[in-house]
Amino acid sequence: MNDHDALLELNRDYIRSVQTSDVRRFDEILADDFLCSNPDGSLVDRKDFLKQTAVPVKISNLEARDVNVRVMGDVAIIHARTTYTLPDGRPGAGRYTDVWARRAGRWLAVSAHVTRLGV
Q1: Which of 18, 32, 92, 94 has the fewest CB atoms within 10 Å, counting from its CB?
Q2: Domain total of the chain
Q3: What are the tens digits of pLDDT across the range 46-102?
């Protein structure tokens, strides 16, 4: 599998893991120095991201759309937009940017930035 396809698969895993609160999968794909900028403006490290992931999300039907993978040697940036259903049934949307680094031959997420639109 080439890098682009591997990163697309990791991106699918990441989104699926958010929807299903799959801490085990995140534990496998997040770098030790991972940081995430949350929609509320907070910055969390890997440990706190795993804690927040363990809490089931209230949204459903989370999907990544218009996924753009840019590979630059041992670093890759993924930009995409999300759509989902809010607990009250209204549609929701957002954007995210994830940064991946190849470390010891594996792609690991090192950074994430998440926004929500109109919520």
Answers
A1: 32
A2: 1
A3: 999 999 999 999 999 999 999 999 999 999 999 999 999 999 999 999 999 999 999
Query: 31: domain CATH number?
Result: 3.10.450.50
- 3-class DSSP state for residue 7? helix
Cα 57 versus chain centre, distance: 14
Please state the φ and ψ torsions of residue 37, each to the nearest 5 degrees: -90, 115
Q: Quick one: tokens of 42?
A: 């907070």
Q: Which domain holds residue 9?
A: 3-117
Strand, coil or helix: 57: coil
> What are residue 115's phi and psi, to 5 degrees?
-130, 155
pTM attached to this predicted model: 0.94
Name the average pLDDT for the chain.
96
The residues facing 103 across adjacent strands are 106
